[in-house]
């Protein structure tokens, strides 16, 4: 079944940077026990062997041995990464992006840490490295749980420093749909998993289109019908404002005075209901 079924690597004997005895790790700041994300990959973390060798031989990668915590690596990404191609443009020298990605492979981050990368607000390249980490070494059956929240992410990024911009959502769609990633190859996603993700992406896009259409109609003061979550019944309500949480609106139920943050999918207009 190819790379998708390769065994999860717990020990890194080839570079010795992080022998792991357990899938759990204690957060050095909070003391909280966190679970590492299992890696489904070969001993080269599913990288092309030439690219992997060039990373291992890179002076920059060797200098990263001084980075010992996840926070150190995130700070280095923020400081050094300005494009996300595997190599420095017009050379065969591995980029800081892929050297730091490889560093993360060897550190085997937790679920909390991967989600911190994917939701980081300081640099789109922190998100990009999180996306590439998931795409290269996370079990294909788990990929969508990480990627689905990003499918509405409109953060602008220029991955190749070539003037071609895209959103984070478009970048995610590209690494799901394509095997070629600039000068390298992504691991193959098993066909049933890829088909399911394509179906979920289509459903998600239909939901986003519906959301955009509804958002154009839902204004403060609009009279709507909204589901009251305490009893799952639908009542007349008035829109107060859009919430910070995307896709939610604060409504007040006109008969009872209760206020609630309501998912846009649980709001309809009276004229859209019934058979008239």
How far apart lie the N and C ends?
54 Å
Order of adjacent strands in the largest pleated sheet: 10-9-8-7-11
Q: Quick check: average pLDDT? A: 88
* Amount of beta strand: 15-25%
Unreliable stretches, pLDDT < 50, 5 or more residues? 1-21
The helix content is 25-40%
Instruction: Quickly count the helices.
Output: 9
Could you tell me the number of beta strands?
11
- One letter per element, helices H and strands E, the order comes to EEHHHHHHHEEHEEHEEEEE
Largest sheet: 5 strands, antiparallel
The chain-level structural class is: alpha+beta
Radius of gyration: 22 Å
Shape: elongated
In brief:
The chain has 276 residues and is of the alpha+beta class. The chain has helices at residues 49-57, 59-63, 70-80, 96-107, 111-118, 124-137, 140-147, 168-177, 191-217; strands spanning 24-26, 33-35, 156-157, 166-167, 180-181, 184-185, 223-228, 233-242, 248-253, 259-263, 267-268.
Highlighted features:
single chain, 276 residues, alpha+beta, two-stranded antiparallel sheet, 9 helices, 38% helix, disordered N terminus
Can you walk through the features of this model?
There is one protein chain. 38% of the residues lie in helices and 16% in strands. It is an alpha+beta fold and 276 residues long. The strands form 4 sheets. A 5-stranded antiparallel sheet has the order 10-9-8-7-11, with no helix packed on it. Strands 1-2 form a two-stranded antiparallel ribbon. Strands 3-4 form a two-stranded antiparallel ribbon. β7 and β8 form a beta hairpin. It is elongated. It starts with 23 loop residues before the first strand and ends in an 8-residue tail after the last strand.
